[in-house]
Amino acid sequence: MKSGVRALGIAESFTGDSSTLAGAVVRASRVTDGFVFGSCTVGGSDATDAIAQMVHRLDRADVRYLLVAGIAPAWFNVVDLHRLHEETGLPVLSVTFEDSEGLEPALREEFSGEALAWRLDTYRAQPERERVSMNDETVFVRSVGCDSPAGEIVRAFTPEGGRPEPVRVARLAARAADRSFGPDE
Questions:
Q1: Which of the following CATH numbers is that of domain 6-100+128-181: 3.30.2170.10, 3.30.565.10, 3.40.640.10, 2.70.50.50?
Q2: pLDDT tens per residue across span 32-81
Q3: Which HAMAP family does the entry link to (predicted)?
Q4: CA-based diameter of the chain, in Å?
Q5: Residues contacting 113, CB < 8 A, separation 6+
Q6: pLDDT interval class at 182 (50, 70, 90)
Q7: Would you say the C-alpha torsion 46, 86, 65, 107 has a positive or negative sign?
Q8: What's the rounded Cα separation, in Å, for the pair 70 and 142?
Q9: pLDDT tens digits, residue range 16-26?
């Protein structure tokens, strides 16, 4: 992949009832050249809309990929990757960092009724996770709308360690913004 190709990484940090979402535009060469911020409700159902709005507000035609940290930020605010792809026109990849049996047991423990049904329906509609090895670490990737294998895309944006640079930088930005403008301010 060419060094100038850009990806928008989305990550979150939360305290209280609101989650700070940060987006970082990062080139494959590791140069960061843009940020966008948003928020979603902790335990809510608005993460997909919030991320789509961030992409539109950023308004960067040069971004080629959307990398989201996880599939259920802000305490199970499940992201619909298919809808994100449709609404943004970008290939979407969700990257998680731990092997697990999935979210269904945790969802069933924490929610019931319509809140559970919506989460299960959205979660089950997402693509299966693909195990991707890189730099002696393993990540798990779900992808929608990619023109190249998901592993190749993630590796191109992960120069070292196991976190793709757009997601790593976005996480740092979300934490800093959350600490600076969190509920205590």
A1: 3.30.2170.10
A2: 999 999 999 999 999 999 999 999 999 999 999 999 999 999 999 999 99
A3: UPF0215
A4: 48
A5: none
A6: low
A7: positive
A8: 9
A9: 888 999 999 99
